[in-house]
Amino acid sequence: MTDKSALPAGWSGTAPDADAMFAMAEVALDTMPAVFLPHLQGVVILIEEFADDEVLKSLDIEHPYDLTGVYEGRPLTERSIGESGGMPDRVTLYRIPILVEWIETGERLDRLVRHVLIHEIGHHFGFSDDDMHTLEDMA
């Protein structure tokens, strides 16, 4: 029997809805090293069922199950000090593909959500894949 107190807040043990997955993402965000947190102010975290056709096409991805998350914005490494305006940076987590990966891998769902979130946040900082793995190890 599962210890319900060990489950992420708002999660009953069945496939979580968007609100429960968002709560997992918030918990994961709180594990980020403090040095990064000021630079994440204003980054919007969204949960959607799947990526739309436009996003998939822009990333040359054929099937919506192949995309678990995406960063949309301009990485901090590509900004100038005088920039202003524009849309806020966004990290979107795709609920159904994350759930499919959860089922296929057996990874704890909260850890999988954390992994996808940190990877996408890494794009916000302009990190390489190796840098993102280091960030995940730090968080």
TrEMBL record:
It comes from the Bacteria. InterPro entries: Zincin_1 (IPR010428), Zincin_1_sf (IPR038555). CDD domains: MMP_ACEL2062 (cd12952). This is Neutral zinc metallopeptidase. It comes from Sphingopyxis bauzanensis. Pfam families: Zincin_1.
